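Q: Convert this sequence to structure tokens.
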Amino acid sequence: MNMFVGNVETARELDGFELKLTDRKKAISVVGLGYVGAVSLACLSDLGHRVVGTDIDGQKVESISWGESPIHEDRLGELLTQGVADDLLSATTDLKKAVMETDVTFVSVGTPTSEDGGCDTRAIEAVARGIGEALAAKNGFHIVVLRCSVPPGTTLDIMKPVLEQYSGKIAGQSFGICFNPEFLREGTAIADFHAPPRTVIGVSDPKTAAVLAEIYAPVDENPIVTTVEVAELVKYVDNVWHATKVVFANEVGRLCKPMGIDSHAVMDIFVQDTKLNLSPYYLKPGFAFGGSCLPKEVRAVNHLAEKLGVATPLMDSLTPSNEKQVEQAVDLVRETGAKKVAVLGVAFKPGTDDLRESPALELIAQLQEEGAEIVAYDPAIQPGPHITKQFDYMRHAAPHLKNVVDGLADFMQETPEDAARDADVIVVTQKLPELRSVLRSKKEEAPVVDLVRISDEARNSSHYIGIGW
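A:
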């Protein structure tokens, strides 16, 4: 499968496919005229596309055929009315007819929670059968775009096989398939469509990527083109993160109220920091958090909430979840069967000699308990009296780390090459440029356990293990 990560320019460079804009806008069918489908139908017609909506609900179809909105959404009725008046928008209950008359089909059917708590994909499978039957009778390259919220694998493992079975054609050759998540907020959906936070196009062939990019060009000239599975999971991650933010803010409110503190004043200041609070700096999978601030202050807030009698389950879960990340790193090393382990990076983050509650120390302590020989490297660490003073700071939080800190002088190495040379496994805990050379000096068969995603070069090496990728 082709893999694109980046924008359309990246896809062109990787696959030699040149996007050629055409005067004729693609005709688009939209299957499922609920919230997302109706908004997509109206907005695509507003961009000048001839659109055909289709649904099994005859009442919705009739309503939209008259240019009337089936739901309450700002400006939706206006755009539907204009689309019908311009002879760009129509609706039908005949799925095959809608597919036959268009170049691209957007699928926006319901995916409710199934009895086991998962995602019910029966509507997707039913629609895929209908589209496949239409494709069997159709010439030309047709593109099917899934826009529902679904678990990774749904588009390629559930929808694609059904399309291929009923069409008798092969995805990527006779038709294209895409996952294109929507990021529309109810109440501002029309505005969000025309000014999207970003446009994500998950594809497995460059022609489909180019066509989708052309469709969205009037509202987003720089779409993100990626794999289908990444695009599927982005939608879930988005909504879980939004839910997390709501719960976090509500827990802050519960903390503030019994103390007489204005929770809105607190959060109004909090959200003004878009450099760290709302940025990629912390929002990247990797190793556990540590240092002098985060662990201590999470404990302090947990203690405060307990003292106030306030329930804060999200905040209470932070430390246990952080500990799970250390446990996972230990498991990855243990599974290699290594006897001698090189740990590259000892401080809680690069560029500092701060050992306070460093997750690397927790990792070392657990590996030593299991009998592993440890060697380590950190360009900022020079064992001495100041290290002992750091430990005094955390004696209540991590007394089990005293022996590790006291033994630093015995297992620290002067260079990363010295640490890695005879090690059975190399564990990378800091993203330091000089560590990349370790891949050239390590034992050929020694695995690299990467906890920070040090580089793409490392990912392409043999015996590479990432913690969350």
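Residues 322-466 form a domain with the Rossmann fold fold (CATH 3.40.50.720).
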